[in-house]
Amino acid sequence: MVKSVSDTRHCAVRLRGAVSSLSRRLRPSRQGDGISGAKLSVIGQLYRVGPMTQTDLAYREGVKLQSLTRLLAELESDGWLVRKAHASDGRQSLLTLTPSGATRLTSAVRDCVAALAKIIKRNLSADERALLLKACDLLDGIGDALDGNTDAFSSPSAPVRATQRGQRA
Fold first, then answer.
1. What is the pLDDT of residue 142?
2. Which domain holds residue 75?
3. What is the reported pTM?
C-alpha cells in the first residue's frame, strides 16, 4: 500500500531515514586521520561556535560530560584543539580549535562539498536543484522548530534565515 503524502508520520519516518542515511554518507572518510563522526561533530561545534567549556560542548552535543573526556583528550593529543584557562573561572578551561585543526576541518568539508556538488550537477536538473534548495529551507525550519523556535515556519523571514545559514556553510 502506498502511503498518502499527507500521512505526517510516514513523512517523519522517511525524513529521518533519508537525513540519517545522507548524513552518514556525507561524513568525510577521514578514518586514516583518526577522525570519527563524533570527533567531527565536536570540532565542527568549536569551528562554528568558537571556544567553549567542556560542559557547554557536552550540552550542545547532547552527551554526558564523561562521554567527551577521552574524545577530547585524543583531539588535543592529535593537535585539533587546545585547552586554555577560563578567564573568570579557574576551575574550567576553554576548548579552542587550533589553526591546524581548523585547516584540516575545512579541507575535509571542502572535499565533501565538492563531491556532493559533482553528484548534484550530474544527477539533478535545474528545476530539481531549485526544489532541493527549497527543501533545504524546510529542513532548516524543522531544525529550528526542534530547537524550540516555534515560530520557525510562521515568520516571513524564516526562509531568508535558512538560505543565509546555508550560504555560510
1. 93
2. 26-123
3. 0.66
